[in-house]
Structures are given as C-alpha cells and as structure tokens.
Write a structure and sequence with these properties.
five-stranded antiparallel beta sheet, about 45% helix, alpha+beta, single chain, 2 domains, OB fold (Dihydrolipoamide Acetyltransferase, E2P), elongated
Length: about 280
Amino acid sequence: MNVSSWLKKPFPFVADFQTKFLISFAFGVFIYLFLLVFQPFGIDSIIVNKAIYLLGFGFVTFFVLLFTLAFLPLILRKTFDLDKWNIGKEIGFIILNVTFISLFNYVYDTAFSEVHTQDHSLYFFIPVTIAVGIIPVTIMVFFFEIYLRERNEKSASEISSKIQHERYSKGNAPNKPIVFTSETGKELLSIDDNHLVFIKSEDNYCKVYFNEGNSIQTSLLRITLKNIENQLVAFPDILRCHRSYIVNKKKVFKITGNARAYNVHFENCKETAAISRSFSKESLL
C-alpha cells in the first residue's frame, strides 16, 4: 500500500466530550512531565520556579487541544465530517494542533520570560513542539488505526455470520405494502416491504433503493428521512441505523468494518449504508 492510499484510510474522530477532555488532559500532563523529567532545550539551566514555569506549557497543551477537539468541530461542521474523516485529515489536524500549541507556547514564554534568561523566538517553539509531540502522536495514529480496524473487522465478521444464519433459518415473511406519502398526503411511491432495500438521505430528498426482479432500482423522493421514518413505524424490520440511512434488515447481506465505522452491504447492490456508533449492530439480526 502506498502513502496516498494509507492517508485515505478511514480513521475515527473522537465524538463524545468526556473522551475529548480526557485526551486533552492526558497530553497536557504528558508534556509537563516530559519537560520536567528530561529538561530538554536548555530547561535544565532554569533555576527559579522551574516546576511552575513548565506547568504553564502543560496548561497550554490542555486548553489548545480541548478547543480544537471540542469546539472547533462545532464551528467548522463541514470540515469535521465524522463520516469522511481519514488518516490524512487526522495528521493534518495534528499539525494544526502543533502549530497552535507552538504559537501559544511562544506567547506564554514571552509573558513569563522573567523566570529564565533564554531568548526563545517563535521559530524556536515550532520545531521544539514538533519534536516533543509529533513523533509519539503519529506512532499512536498508526497503531491505533491497525487496532481499531482489526477489532471492527473481527466484530463485523462475527455479526455477518449470525445474520446469514438468521436469514436462512427464518425464511421470507409475507409481503406488506409500504406507501410513502408527502406532507400534503400525495402518494410518492408504493412498494412491498420485502422489496425495500434501504433509503439514503440526500439533503431535502431521499433516495429509495428497492428490488425489481434481479436488479436494484432507485427512486428519488422530495421528502425528509425523518418523515419517512415516521411512516415506517409499523415495520419493525426497517430500521434507521444512521443519521442518513434507513435499512431493511431482511435485505442485509453482511457487515464490514474499518477503523472508523461499520457499513451494511446488500445483495446485488454496490452501494452500502453506514452504521452510526450509537446504533446497536445486533439490531440487524
């Protein structure tokens, strides 16, 4: 695998605030202890208030990471699309963090320069911050991607085996008609529930995938996914598994996993449906 392909591999972006806080705190503590124990870059020459001075760099790391992890994604929602996050974006995000931390380290060091006699420029802090942080973080990304991918692939394989067993043991249930209607009550599409494969949200439209003979057909409806979900409450086998997808679990062929998430596959269909982190994969059995 070349570098370009590796950078495009899926990678998870931390979703919950508690984990973001713990990551920020852990890196802040790491930076403080690293500087305190090893005292690189002339730190060993500082005599007055060394521990307190170095603690400031830990606080800078903590607050910068907390901002970029927790609040920056709220400001730049399109940039931080969790479903499209990959290794390349993660490394770019790390570089952004290193740059921010370098800038604020420089501001902090300038403001409290009376505790040491060295004259540290901005050009000093950027390579120093990179030297301390970029190598362990990049190594972490590399091994974390391998661990998550192998874990999710194993989990997906186990669930896929259960799905295959469930499908063969249950057989096909009788058809029941599904009629999709607009908010005005106008009929948009009528199909049997056993023919529905999945539904994908596309802005103010929904794309319905369904079986017709031995092929997959689609129909684009001007309707929201929430509206469709409300019209499917009488069909317990048709589930919303993601903010953008509703799937008919009777049509699920297998599940695959990567480092970021899981995807649902269907027979005779190249398209797949994503599964959100909060959705129980066992619900597809």
